[in-house]
Amino acid sequence: MPDCSRFPAWKKLKEHQKDMQRISMRYLFAEDANRFERFSLQAGGILLDYSKNRITALTVRLWLELAKEARLSDAIEAMFSGQKINRTEDRAVLHTALRNRDHTPVFVDGRDIMPDVDGVLARMRTFTDEVRNGNWLGYTGKRITDIVNIGIGGSDLGPVMVTQALKPYWHRDLRAHFVSNVDPSQMIDTLAEVDPETTLFIVASKTFTTPETLLNAHVARRWLIDQAGSEAAVVRHFVAVSTNTEKVQAFGIDKEHMFEFWDWVGGRYSIWSAVGLPVALMVGMDHFEDFLSGAHAMDQHFRTASPERNLPVIMGMLSLWHNDFWNAESQAIFPYDQYLARFPAYLQQLEMESNGKSVTFDGKTSRCQTGPVIWGEPGGNGQHAFFQLLHQGTRTVPADFLIAAESQRPVDRQHEVLQANCFAQTKALMLGKTRDEAKAELMRNGVTGKRLEMLLPHKVFPGNRPTTTLVYRKLDPYTLGALIALYEHKVFVQGAVWNINSFDQWGVELGKQLTGGIETDLADDKQITGHDSSTNGLINACKHLRRNGNGATG
Ligand code: F6P
Fold first, then answer.
1. For the whole model, what pTM was predicted?
2. pLDDT at 554 (0 to 100)
């Protein structure tokens, strides 16, 4: 496969971008009354309005040419049909099979994996029903009231984000807690909030070798045994979610209490597997299956819809357009939905761990700019913090705005206020305010003369800043499933064009390797000299501070 910059459509897009630099969105909207209809799509209960971007029909045509030259359709089929597209790890990529609600066979190495998938879902149903109905009892015979998920990365971010997003569906007598950080404060504070007699720990780790998770799990296990006065309590209070039966058993969790998943599920794509157990416990298996169904609907759309009507294809190409042709360094995500507060953090792993690569499948350095920096916050809060930079800063930050048509918790007309804020922001970013408009406004407010001249440049908004808006009826489990799958496939589309492996994560290894040596160096009080001067200095400063309390380093 040629480097993406060598595709003929890439070159055409470069030329086209030069033309587009001269055209404003104000003009494009004024010129075409049907711009919204032309540049909006719907699937899986999600409306995607991408009209407030610097694009024309020609732009989209060229994106589709590029997708064709990159053989995107073949790549999509290769993923869904279980080919080992994660070549550096020699694995298939089949999170889509986890939510294959049609139950049609999916083969890995000649074996249909659907019976395994459905088998684990059935076990999850039995277990979650028992806990939710109060039949699963703790070591003193009390029902479970608190669930503590111990995991990190994909074994944490998905469970946290989805559990939080589906709060209106929670079982009223259950509470969920999440511990990911190896900083013991998080575990200690969590343990202070729960009762050992009524707490269920879920140790979630694909590999079951991740030190942060295992250290935290051991702290929780010791705490439980200390409180209960016997190891026998562990069996009623610990379950595991993993691909590694041996390590789970070595930790002291029985195979019976392990929920399996498989190496063809990437960590950051694992929320659809038993990694979703905390979600299923909190919202019940019926809602969890609705969540899977929403994702399945988006999968079918992605696999079968024509590229020009295909939400993930359009979103992927749009993001690539900003990233590679307008040199946008980051992509912001603004949910106008409090329940999606952790969605930006979830997308950070999904996008940045997937597409933060600089080497193509052919082992060559990519000549294209790959994954952008993803960041974001609930939009309403962002408006009063960093939106200034979006409106008047020197950088262009393409942003996704997400909003529900209906609130999960309606109060008076407050949801309309939220919606008005969301739509006003995208309108303001697109339209801006010209010098003439700003001047007229100042004069209307009685500002004249020198003060007007001084103020005027500060009151101008350049506008022409790209935003994309996603609207859904209500953040129910089905819609949330479709939304996450939409972003997953968007990431896939970009990876396919860049010809990078979106499913490995070798970049996290080096830091892990170096941690062991530094941990040993930190264990005693000796002066350390074996690293670069900065690393030596930092280790020695910590030792000095912990020895002497405070004061100068040395
Ligand atoms: O270090 C990165 C990573 O491997 C992620 O890809 C993964 O989601 C996370 O660590 C946790 O891994 P595990 O589920 O194996 O504990």
1. 0.97
2. 42
